[in-house]
Write a structure and sequence with these properties.
Number of strands: 22
CATH architecture of the domain at 51-151 and 222-260 and 274-422 and 493-514: Alpha-Beta Barrel
Bound molecules: 1-deoxynojirimycin
Structural class: alpha/beta
Oligomer: single chain
CATH class of the domain at 51-151 and 222-260 and 274-422 and 493-514: Alpha Beta
Low-confidence stretches: 1-41
Helix content: 25-40%
Mean pLDDT: 92
Distance between the termini: 36 Å
Radius of gyration: 24 Å
Number of helices: 19
Strand order of the largest sheet: 13-12-10-5-2-1-15-14
Shape: globular
Amino acid sequence: MNPRINMTRRTFASVLSASALALVGCAAGSNGQSASAASASSSASAQDMPWWKKTIVYEAYPKSFQSTKGVETGDIAGVASRLDYLKELGVGAIWLTPVFVSPMADNGYDVADYYNIDPSFGTMEDMEELIAKAGEHGIKIVLDMVVNHTSNKNAWFVESSSSKNNSKADWYIWRDPAKDGGAPNNWRGIFGGSAWTYVEARGQYYLHTFLPEQPDLNWENAEVRKEVANVFNFWRNKGAGGFRIDAVTYIKKPAGLPDGTAESDGLAPIHDATANTEGILDFLHELRNNTVAGTDCFMVGEANGVQASELSDWVGENGVFDMVFEFSHMDLDGHDASWIDAHGWELSALKDALSATQANTASNGWCPTFFENHDQPRCVVNFFPEGSDTDLAAKCMATVQLGLRGTPFVYQGQELGFTNVAWPSIDYYNDPSSHNQYDQAIAKGHTPEEALAGVHRFSRDNARTPMQWDTSSNAGFTTAPTTWLPVHNDYETQNAAVESERDDSVLGYFRRMAELRERSDVLLAGNYEEVAHDHEQIYAFVRELNSKKMLVMANFSTEEASLGDLAGTMSDATKVLIDTYGSGPAPTSALRPLEARICEL
Ligand code: NOJ
């Protein structure tokens, strides 16, 4: 899934000598957009930009954010109780993972009723109060719309599965059994096993991209599309400021649902068969026109399977979303397909992926910047060498993320430097994909220890442990004696209260970095040019607006990194605006291990 892009670059030094401080980098992205097009596109100032381009979006996983009821899980009122904390972080929007009525087969990504709040999270009044209170803080609420599929307990599915002729008979994807009575085709669901489940009452199978408890809606049916738009408008009218659309690349299936190329278990990955099927954008244009078009409510799509080179169809002038999460930089090690088979990666691959997204949204559209979410391991493990100082790594990543062009989507705990967990057995894990990946590893002949090591490294539960607010019992997440997932054992140092007191904490740095971005037109609106591409330790890029330039440099290695050609930028006039090592004098010819720095050129 990683686009291998062909960019022409000159060295930084050659450009410096050609014209002082002229910039080079990704001169042509994979869709041929040129660097000059990128420059031409930058707004003259951040003032003209819509609110969602200038803000920071904070992803909260309400189940693990804050309990106000003294139970094992968090709730909506818990999010409302932490608005001051989020405001201080520079957050202007909170993306809540799904809080609608759900049997929780996949932690809310299986919705039984889109028009009501799950009792474990609170009530409709709690949600209305959150939207109102957040508004008073200048914060909007972004809702997570899961509309590729519903829960099998949704009344629509219950009716649809009851017979072949009911008012919802065609709302899901039903097919007769194959000649041998088996599944209609060989697709494997994303969480393992056949993507088809048989229902006696219809004598047919239904399709599910994810768990059997998550039947796929039939988007070919105009009534379904209309009802989906109704759901969006219901929440827009309640005051939602944006929508994140879950698993959106799977909503359209190829005609005839043909078999894929079978792998050793006789099944073919459904992702390869259905992601980004031709014609999908027609559905999405219709959805946009019937919901957020003409409003300041934004839509961000989870677009697994969309390549950077395809972004112009998805965002910008002719696109359907304001931004999409494009995942090429998140799967550099190939773990998307199999955790146990994940491999190493080079810094150049990360640079290629990030620069491709930047190039393809430079003159048309916008992108989110993200290195974590509720489905990914913690970034301090994912992007840095084993044994890295995780506080330094977290600050380094914050510099890159908030230094890049785009809207930062920060995942809860990232601002505190949270790291992965490593529980002693698979039984501790709640996440269905962890169980599936563990079973797959065992089926491939790996030992339980090896299979568990894969889970430690990639489990989605790494990101789902309770928030750590202070040093009290259960880190201040709940007054209940136990929590739904264990609290990380580093909570006495990595928590909001302790880190708030210390300027040199990850939180202290994050706040300073957020402030720098908020008051810098260059960081908000400037164009992006990658520099020093061949440097093996440092990722560096220049942001430029109206001839003002800032250089962002990050050493991704645990060794000191000589600046090489980049040192040519350091003159007496160069001002260090922020440095992850603190305020002391920064070496002019090197970056210390995991150090990141932003300089005004
Ligand atoms: C993507 C979501 O982010 C993930 O958590 C969920 O399991 C799947 N979509 C299915 O809805």
